Amino acid sequence: MASSDCKISPIISIFVFFLFLNSSSVCPVCSSESGEFNRVNQTFHAREELEKLKMIRAHLMKINKPAVKTLQSPDGDLIDCVASHQQPAFDHPQLKGQKPLDPPERPKGHHSNRMGSENYQLWSILGESCPEGTIPIRRTSEKDVLRASNVRKFGRRITKPIRRDSSSNGHEHAVGYVTGDQYYGAKASLNVWAPRVANQYEFSLSQMWVISGSFGNDLNTIEAGWQVSPELYGDNYPRFFTYWTSDAYQATGCYNLLCSGFVQTNNKIAIGAAISPTSSYNGGQFDISLLVWKDPKHGNWWLEFGSGVLVGYWPSFLFTHLRSHATMVQYGGEVVNSNPSGLHTSTQMGSGHFAGEGFGKASYFRNLQVVDWDNSLIPLSNLRVLADHPNCYDIQGGINTVWGNYFYYGGPGENSKCP
């Protein structure tokens, strides 16, 4: 018996071993539990996705207003012509039931040229425009919102792009700026490019910032310019944009008309729409003018884009510090560097070429001015220039009789000196 037991023992051991290996298939209870877990898990994810979709559609219903007319842009955008009094701004409790204000008096010393100034967006390149009494709004799609890293923060900046130590959060700048006085507006002309953006989570822009408050939680900014942002728009076209915040990009403000705030008064300019034409290296240069100024009568901050076209205004009540005046004005470029593969990004700023290459090759800002307490445009007296990483993107300032205060700026990002 002892001998027989010894012979059987290895067979039993092998059987037990295989039984253990295949426990999920031979144990009906275990198999049942595993299947149930998978079913519950799938149901949970399905419900989660459904809730996300419901939230997106509710948000789209809020920002995509009923259209009187819809136009198709060559780049695929849908432009809705929305009754002026139904635009997103009038969802704000302090604007409900109101209508856009009449244009204010422009700053003294301001000269505008309206010739050909309204046909520099792709959607209106064939002369299309919205009817009087309506404004053009780029329709936001489900795809637009789904590209956002956070649905609740769609249309908002997640980080603070203005601070001088901003390189720590991936934002890099080459800017000219003035500070130390009271500013009631700013003006500049800048050329438009189509810089390469390395991935969906980065952007490249050129803009003006009108700033007040500290760089803590009470920062107020008004911003306008052009940007290439695949995450926000789903393509690589340079687009006219606006932004504002009254609490350092935390809970207030947004891009364009993606929240209640900016009041648009123009029926020919679509904020967020692609700009055309653009500048070419060693070729034709296309620039636009931007003017932001505070209406002395009502205190609202108005925006002019192009060569004399009023776009609309930011009501003064949106702000805390900017209810009175700005304490800093910045002009220049900004990119997001997400350090792909541990290297500096190859996202370009401006033309993608350094400032030293000059006209026709580098990006520029020219005729820089500010608005003083008397609603007069005046030249800058103390322009400073600063680049966070001059080996990646740099800046060179100057002054002459034709361009007044100006600077060249930009760069390619990753290169032998910017690894």
Automatic annotation (TrEMBL):
Residues 165-419 form the Neprosin PEP catalytic domain. Residues 1-26 form the signal peptide. Keywords: Signal. Residues 89-115 are annotated as: Disordered. Gene3D superfamilies: Outer-capsid protein sigma 3, large lobe (3.90.1320.10). InterPro entries: Glutamic_endopeptidase (IPR053168), Neprosin (IPR004314), Neprosin_propep (IPR025521). This is Arabinan endo-1,5-alpha-L-arabinosidase A. It comes from Actinidia chinensis var. chinensis.
